Amino acid sequence: MFSGPYIIATVYKGITENVFQLCSFYHIDDYCFHHLFSFSVFAIFEMNVLAELQTSLKDKWCSPSDTLHASKIPKALREPAIITGYRPVNRSWNYYLFSMFRLHNETFNVWSHLVGIVAIILVLLNLSDTYGFSGNKHLWPALTFGICAIITNLFSTVAHLLHSKSTKVHFTMFLLDYIGVTFYAFGSGVLAMYACSTKTFYEAWSQYYLSTLVIACWFSYIVLCVAKCIYGEDPFNKSKKRLQVGSVVILSVWLIAPLFERYKTCFMQNGCSFSSLNHITICILLFGLQAFFFGSHLPEKMFPGKCDILGQGHQIFHILSNLTQVTQIRAVVMDMRSGHSDHTDPAFSELLFYGVLLMALSISTFLLARKFTPNS
Ligand SMILES: [Zn+2]
User: What is the distance in A from the centroid of ligand 1 to the CA of 271?
Assistant: First the structure.
């Protein structure tokens, strides 16, 4: 009953339905969006189509001398099961900057998060036009999350664009990228507490939540940095991924705690159906899928060399993170519309204070961690 194709089909159906709902929620032409999405998902599973597409893209936009085989670049810059498409090291900054317009194994990662930034800005503008931020405190968590998501996607774009310059720059850029991950977690925690929590949980925990969330996010950032500094020179070392995924999963428990109480309350209440929480459930499922594709390096490990330009697990992770961010904001708006978040009392100055505090702690840790990165 739970065969591989059945699970893939179920996950695909769930994600597609979510994209449909998102399209109609944000008034996007859902027909075009759906077909674009269907094509991209099936292209990943249909590896022959993917291989042909990559060959024709390489022929058009990439001469053989533009990119290198994994054996020609430092070990720290290699990715498991990605064989070709690497940019050479020690070129000018302009070379890496303009490489966003050429085809290599990071092009998709750069553009996918740039598109994510544009999507978040459009969603926030849409909310501003529809509801207005100034007079509606229940939308401030969404605004805070939107700013955090833009920071996340911006740091990720810069990291993927510039990290190939040298081993030292690679470490520096990904330590910066982790600040973005930390802010994504902070923004998600703000949403969970100020938009989706129950009245009971809010009254019990709200006065401690932001301070403990900042500490949990900072601790997670420290673990990400330690994992990168200790194991980063060997990208095939499994301890690094385990530590990174483990720290984010432990942090997620604190992020999901307000939501857990909501499921518990629904379970105890007569007449409350879990389907009324579908807008939250889909966010949690998308989180799980993100962790899977980030940590597993699939499908490229099953098809080494066939996903060098398109189809890497990390690219799927980027698409899922964009999708999750937009879905999370929709969940906040749905809870605001239904009056579920009426009991919360977010103060933008407080959210800003803790956001700035987290940035200060992260930058200090980044400057310290940078001393433990390779010199060349
Ligand atoms: Zn990335």
Answer: 42
| 174 Cα to the center of ligand 1, angstroms | 9
DSSP per residue over 172-212, as a string?
HHHHHHHHHHHHHHHHHHHHHHHTS--HHHHHHHHHHHHHH
Q: Where are the domains of the chain?
A: 4-370
CA–centroid distance, 350 to ligand 1, in Å, is: 30
Q: How far is it, in rounded angstroms, from Cα 170 to Cα 362? A: 18
CA-closest candidate to residue 138, choices 284, 280, 338, 321: 338
φ, ψ at 87 (rounded to 5°): -80, 150
User: Collapsing DSSP states into helix, strand and coil, what is residue 289?
Assistant: helix
Tokens of 182: 């930390």
Q: What is the mean pLDDT of residues 318-331?
A: 94
Segment 171-195, tens digit of pLDDT: 999 999 999 999 999 999 999 999 9
Q: Using the mean position of ligand 1's atoms as its centre, give its distance from the Cα of residue 208 in Å.
A: 32
Residue 2 has pLDDT above 50, yes or no: no
Q: Distance from the CA of 263 to the center of ligand 1, in angstroms? A: 31
Q: What is the pTM of this model?
A: 0.82
d(CA 243, CA 94) in angstroms, rounded, equals 34
Q: What's the 337 CA to ligand 1 centre distance in angstroms?
A: 33
CA-CA distance, 182 to 354, in Å (whole number)? Answer: 13
pLDDT tops 70 at residue 54:
no
Could you tell me which CATH number the domain at 4-370 has? 1.20.1070
Contacts of residue 257, defined as CB under 8 A and 6 or more positions apart, other chains included, come to: 192, 201, 205
What pLDDT, on the 0 to 100 scale, is given for residue 57?
64
| Residues whose CB is less than 8 angstroms from the CB of residue 356 and which lie 6 or more positions away in sequence, other chains included | none
Q: How many Cα atoms are found within 13 Å in the side-chain-facing hemisphere of 219?
A: 14
State the distance from the centre of ligand 1 to the C-alpha of 237, rounded, in angstroms.
18
pLDDT in tens, 214-272: 999 999 999 999 988 888 778 777 787 788 878 888 888 888 888 888 898 888 888 88
In this predicted structure, the answer to whether residue 66 has a pLDDT above a threshold of 90 is: no
Least Cα distance to 313 among 110, 125, 109, 124 occurs for 109
